[in-house]
Amino acid sequence: MSEPLRLGIAGLGTVGASLVRVLKEKHNFLAARCGRPIEVVAVSARDRKRKRDCDISGMRWYDDPVELAADSEVDVFVELIGGDDGPADESVRRALESGKHVVTANKALLARHGVELAEMAEEKGLLLNFEAAVAGGIPIIKAMRETLTANTITRVFGILNGTCNYILTRMELEGLGYQECLADAQRLGYAEADPTFDVEGYDTAHKLAILTSLAFGTQIASDKIYVEGISNITPADIQAAADLGYRIKLLGVAQKTDTGIEQRVHPTLVPVDAPIAQIHGVTNAVAIDGDIVGQLVLSGPGAGGMATASAVAGDIADIAKSLPGPQTVPSLGTPAEKLQPYEQARMRAHEGGYFIRLSLNDRAGAFASIASRMAEQDISLQSIVQHRTGQETDDSPETAQPVILVTHRTTESAIRAAFEKIGADGHLAAKPQMIRIEQ
Amino acid sequence: MSEPLRLGIAGLGTVGASLVRVLKEKHNFLAARCGRPIEVVAVSARDRKRKRDCDISGMRWYDDPVELAADSEVDVFVELIGGDDGPADESVRRALESGKHVVTANKALLARHGVELAEMAEEKGLLLNFEAAVAGGIPIIKAMRETLTANTITRVFGILNGTCNYILTRMELEGLGYQECLADAQRLGYAEADPTFDVEGYDTAHKLAILTSLAFGTQIASDKIYVEGISNITPADIQAAADLGYRIKLLGVAQKTDTGIEQRVHPTLVPVDAPIAQIHGVTNAVAIDGDIVGQLVLSGPGAGGMATASAVAGDIADIAKSLPGPQTVPSLGTPAEKLQPYEQARMRAHEGGYFIRLSLNDRAGAFASIASRMAEQDISLQSIVQHRTGQETDDSPETAQPVILVTHRTTESAIRAAFEKIGADGHLAAKPQMIRIEQ
User: So what's the pLDDT on residue B392?
Assistant: First the structure.
């Protein structure tokens, strides 16, 4: 048995405490598999006195994670603090500067500074592992970074936020409204008191930014993502989508197009028999289209202390197994210095089908007018449905006539131009709903 | 850019030819990602003159793969010959003996000699990579060997044979018979002229044996698997299962029980909303239950030249990236010398629910008798259905009365004892069907 691998863990919240427990309970099991014991020798958190769900006796305590990161008796620095700046960022840099491998679950940090940190790690022959940062326990980073190395990825998309998928699943299965499901999610601990970060799509966007870099060998560009959340989705949308053979999911999608790479987060209609449509509740899933392999779909728990700790522990075990020897697996699949600039495809150039739900003041005349506005933009309609659910009252007056349109493949700019004209024509009794379709 | 990684490829069938093409087309792309070019310097196949779908000009030719394996100008030996003995086995041993890393897609070889070969590789600090051997393009080996290192696996199960899943999917969706779907599978190249190896479950068993070792840290025991194929499944079974909310899939299941580890391959009823039930056609999927992560499900193309080549190329890229330096990732997740003996759970001790389809000569009296035979064995029934599909004629005379029983959790030995008695009682008009249920 070789020398132990010595860990310093910064951040003892749900994930950190779960990790400390797992490493203790599985000590001998992990030592046998990794060929060396894994010991937590130092920890850091905000408040030393706080009661925790893990035993940290015998570990060196640091109030400052940056000091922990510089501890010369630590081989691997595990960052579980969170946040894209401040102590998380400083401590990871300090750890790399002082020659330590880093394992992190921090999507925000990577979305903002990932390329720079990967470059620092690679220059020094260190590993920067972050399996837990995207889709929790699902081995999506390793799959994209290693197994799919020979594939040119054309698209990666997924359900990356359990809160949103929980809410949409409840809305669909029980016919409930958004607010009611959100309140339940909050009660169950699936959503924060301020749910904005999850429900408005920002959490998904951070994760998508990392997947985009892995997929296309481009620099991370988390500030160039089209983001739309789920708070506008109504039971009427979900019912109308179901009638047409679709489910509504919040997807993060990164896709290569002729004009660049699209990064978009929005509620999406997916065919009810698509693998991604089968993902219910807080479960996450990622689908990858590779030119050699075809489509892979990986699903599992995307959050939670234990599932996240599983991925963090896997990253640590990788380091334990492969030491000694220089570490040359590029963190982002491509050596950081060779990542290409991200070329953003314009959202208006996006092509796809659209689901449109309108409330018309007077259907007879209004519909003819709308149809001609669509035709002016060369938008052809795949289906036109008058939707009767008795649920229209939530966003339209009783006299309004709901109409659902599904378009054939068209462009975002054509849809927006048509919407502008339709709005000006004055036939709409309420703000129209538009949801993109992903096949 | 570092020195090229030099490959010798033995076997130029569908997978080998696809791999040679991929490595040529992606030469620069792979070199950038791996930090060194990957060059195929030598190849071997049975017939030099055979027309192939790849260009092997400029590569050294060997009639004998064992000689190729000893070529001192080769860094990695890629075995795509197939078979659990003979040239595949000899050449892999020779490659390891002469200090070469090995990448193989050969499930039969690993199912028989995997532990011994892993031990040879680990003693010499070499990698023996075989992502393509189980479930083709799906990164299941890496997930189990690396990402899930800290998890104690309780069960791994999956659809590991595309031929069977294609046949069962067609039978279900189109209400066709087994023979008709098999003939179509043969016509489309999904099934061999002699389909026994696929449809009787042996291919699934080979793959399962490898997954079992990875899951439980035990020696590979491919001769201790309960194997039952799909050739007895009728449209009546599929229809009756559907009426009860189930689909029928050929699963390979490895599961820890109180008496040991179960390895079983058999047609299985899975709830229609389970992730594994959504896998249609030739697609494969593997579900893993880990004590920390929960359940992961990975799905994708399980066969085909390109999907398999994708996984082989990923294994090669791993070696290209990590050289130089000793290789210490154990092939089977646990160092081969530390693998525990496989302790077989007796199939008769298997516990679960059972689907039973009977044809009774005279339902009134017969049913009472059968119910009491079940009760004698403490088997309690969850549902009893008289099934009317008009399809009973395929295995029962017209006067026979079909009855479907679904049991609560019971044991295989109880079911078999009850069947023996029921058979002797003389009420059955045809051989009874019994299909296990997996939740």
Answer: 46
Judge whether residue A389 has pLDDT over 60: no
Q: What is the mean pLDDT of residues B29-52?
A: 95
**Hey, is A407 helix, strand or coil?**
strand
Q: What is the C-alpha to C-alpha distance for residues B223 and B254, in angstroms, rounded to an integer?
A: 14
Residue of A nearest to B147 (CA): A314
The pLDDT confidence band at residue B365, using thresholds 50, 70 and 90, is confident
Q: Does the distance separating the beta carbons of A298 and B298 come in below 8 Å?
A: yes
Using a pLDDT cut of 70, give the percent of chain A over it. Answer: 95
Question: Based on the domain organization, do A241 and A329 belong to the same domain?
Answer: no
Residues A250 and A169 in one domain: yes
**DSSP characters over A195-221:** -HHHHTTHHHHHHHHHHHHHHHTB---
Contacts of A272 (CB under 8 A, 6+ apart): A242, A245, A246, A247
Chain A environment of B144 (Cβ under 8 Å): none
Percent pLDDT > 90 in chain B is 88
Cβ atoms of residues A165 and A250 within 8 Å: yes
pLDDT digits (tens, 9 = 90+) for B372-411: 999 999 999 999 987 554 444 455 445 678 899 999 999 9
**pLDDT value at position A164?**
98
Instruction: Answer positive or negative: Cα dihedral of B156, B157, B160, B162.
Output: negative
| Confidence grade of residue B211 (pLDDT, cut at 50, 70, 90) | very high
Ordered alpha helix ranges (H), A86-143: 86-97, 107-123, 140-142
Residue A100 and residue A77 in contact, taking contact as beta carbons nearer than 8 Å = yes
| DSSP states along B245-277 | TEEEEEEEEEEEETTEEEEEEEEEEEETTSGGG
All residues of chain B having their beta carbon less than 8 Å from the beta carbon of residue A278 are 273, 275, 278
Q: Note whether B167 and B101 are same-domain residues.
A: no
Contact B383, B243 (CB under 8 A): no
Whether B343 is in a domain gets the answer no
Domain that holds residue B375: 348-437
Distance between CA atoms of residues A259 and A256, nearest Å:
8
Question: What is d(CA B341, CA A266) in angstroms, rounded to the nearest whole number?
Answer: 51
CA dihedral for B68, B71, B74, B77, sign (positive or negative): positive
Q: What CATH code is carried by the domain that includes residue B83?
A: 3.40.50.720
Name the residue among B293, B298, B328 with its Cβ closest to that of A35. B328
Residue B329 has what pLDDT?
84
Chain A neighbors of B34, CB-CB under 8 A: 149
Q: How far is CA A321 from CA A30, A34, B102, B273, in A?
A: 10, 5, 19, 39
Backbone angles phi, psi at A178, to 5 degrees: -60, -50
Closest-approach residue (CA) in chain A for B312:
A147
Q: Give the count of Cβ contacts less than 8 A between chain A and B.
A: 204
Q: CA–CA separation, A128 vs A31, rounded Å?
A: 21
Q: What is the ipTM of this complex?
A: 0.95
